[in-house]
Design brief:
There is one protein chain. The protein has ten helices and twelve strands. The chain has 342 residues and is an alpha/beta fold. Strands 1, 2, 3, 4, 5, 6, 7, 8, 11 and 12 form a ten-stranded mixed β-sheet that branches. A hairpin with a 2-residue loop joins strand 9 and strand 10. The longest helix has 19 residues.
């Protein structure tokens, strides 16, 4: 099969990003590319199509940006009519990831469904897919890899396995291994989904698992502030304020995520284990004391064990693990400084 990109909506774009005017020479590729990797839990090389977004000034250095397991390749959208990207507030003209200075590259996470005969996906597989894409696109070496949550895990795997293809690591709310308590919480979520499959109610189970996940993403202070009101009696029972929020989150997740993808990527988080001593790239770590999934102590350990130079930035936030999505104003100067240090 041809290695040429198979475009979905590639275009030369003169549209606005984050409400600011863009230079007319910015380009956007939103395509698929055939690559080959050897999966960690497979026995032979596999070919697959990886879906990616690559946008910015054509001759600018490339920065990989990857988010959590529910994040897509659409870090930013340049079409004012489209829904904003998941990090729209940080990518665009005059923003830390200025598309006049950088090209942003991101992929949709791969899963076992993309790989024949493979039962599990690893953070190393995600890293190898990105490295193969970087080679296929003729990039050679990326300026930086910015990874948040699961994206930080893939970034660490990328740095360990492809050191010559990377300038710098910028890691938010992600470490070299999952915390056992977080693994326990995700294991319960996967158990709920598998039970739903067995009972013929997979979507209802996925929604419930997402509701449970939401209680781990956010901080205790935020929940206390938002949901302290008294319950309401309706439909024959008391409803607590937090329930409506959780049910809405569950419904939205089911609309855009399928059961097998959730199970594979959730498990991939808990399979992740990259020895920090293998990583020589300079790194900026960003952690949040309210994050109950990735405790600050794990980032302190990661900083201590990394082979290369590393700094740890601590951002106080009520938003827990989701602070990397919510605290964009406070993250902006940290990202600018980290990128300038490359």
């Amino acid at each position: 099969m041809s290695s040429q990109p198979q475009p979905l909506t590639p275009s030369v774009s003169a549209l606005a990003a984050a409400g600011a005017a863009m230079r007319p020479d910015l380009t956007t590729q939103r395509c698929t590319r055939r690559i080959q990797i050897t999966p960690k839990y497979g026995s032979a090389p596999c070919e697959l199509d990886v879906s990616y977004l690559w946008c910015g000034a054509p001759d600018a250095p490339t920065v990989i940006v990857q988010g959590g397991i529910s994040a897509s390749r659409d870090v930013v959208t340049l079409d004012g009519e489209a829904a904003p990207g998941w990090w729209q507030a940080l990518v665009g003209s005059g923003l830390p990831l200025d598309l006049q200075r950088y090209r942003v590259l991101s992929i949709d996470w791969i899963t076992p469904a993309d790989l024949d005969g493979v039962q599990a996906i690893s953070s190393e597989d995600q890293a190898d897919a990105l490295a193969a894409l970087v080679e296929a696109l003729g990039i050679g070496r990326v300026h930086a890899f910015i990874g948040s949550s699961y994206g930080a895990m893939a970034a660490l795997a990328f740095a360990a396995r492809h050191p010559y293809a990377l300038g710098r690591l910028i890691l938010l709310a992600g470490a070299h291994r999952p915390h056992p308590l977080a693994t326990a919480q995700r294991s319960v979520q996967r158990g709920i989904v598998r039970l739903g499959q067995d009972c013929g109610q997979p979507e209802q189970a996925l929604a419930l698992a997402r509701q449970l996940a939401m209680t781990t993403y956010r901080g205790s202070d935020e929940f206390a502030r938002r949901f302290s009101a008294a319950p309401e009696f309706r439909d024959g029972r008391f409803h607590f304020p937090v329930e409506d929020y959780l049910e809405h989150a569950g419904r939205r997740f089911v609309e855009r995520f399928d059961v097998e993808r959730f199970l594979a990527l959730s498990e991939s988080i808990d399979l992740h284990d990259v020895p920090p001593e293998q990583i020589a790239a300079p790194a900026t770590l960003i952690g949040f004391p309210s994050d109950r999934l990735v405790p600050l102590a794990d980032l302190c350990e990661l900083q201590r064990r990394l082979l290369g130079p590393a700094t740890l930035e601590v951002v106080e936030s009520p938003y827990g693990h989701d602070a990397f999505l919510k605290e964009t104003d406070r993250l902006a100067p940290l990202l600018r400084d980290a990128l300038a240090g490359c």
